[in-house]
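Write out the 3D structure for:
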Amino acid sequence: MNYYYITVLGISKRGDAYSRTLRIHGARATLRTAKDKDDRLSRWVTRIAQNRHPNVAAVALANKTVRIAWAMMKNGTEYQIKLVAR
């Protein structure tokens, strides 16, 4: 599959509702445990949750997770925590 022509936009309600629901539920579960962790991604999403509504933070995390997965597929790389949440 050629991933070079795919544009990743924000999480829209116009797409697949089931896929969006799964991504956001996963992000909410991650957000719930992020307070106890010290990695960059956890600190990033915790900071967003403190400044905004937790649901906004969950959607931001879901969007970031999809973007990371898309970049990994596009470049054929593995997950690298040091590159996340700069």
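The chain is about 60% helix and 0% strand.
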